[in-house]
């Protein structure tokens, strides 16, 4: 019998200081936790073939999806359909902590990016590609 994959997700997200940490990758989805420092952002991006669902664990920020803006805080969830330009900005004094589900996976299995700069560099170098099955 297969084991149960289980996380206390808010605890996992809050204990990670990393900008991005892939917790689990399946064939069709991926679970990632992120910590955006005060004044930081994910960066404007578009995932042409990937839906994304973000749930905010702590902190305050601004969600920008297809030009529309919304304040986000603990307990909020934002859906970003594939092909929509988006960004998430930390507007508070504390880290903006969240977890996100990508479908299909967007990052390399097990990837850990300590900073946004490291994440951007690895993506540009082609070293953060999702697994192909």
TrEMBL record:
Pfam families: Cupin_2 (PF07883). Residues 33-102 form the Cupin type-2 domain. Residues 107-133 are annotated as: Disordered. Residues 107-119 have a biased composition (Basic and acidic residues). InterPro entries: Cupin_2, Flavonoid_dioxygenase-like, RmlC-like_jellyroll, RmlC_Cupin_sf. This is Cupin type-2 domain-containing protein. It comes from Blastococcus jejuensis.
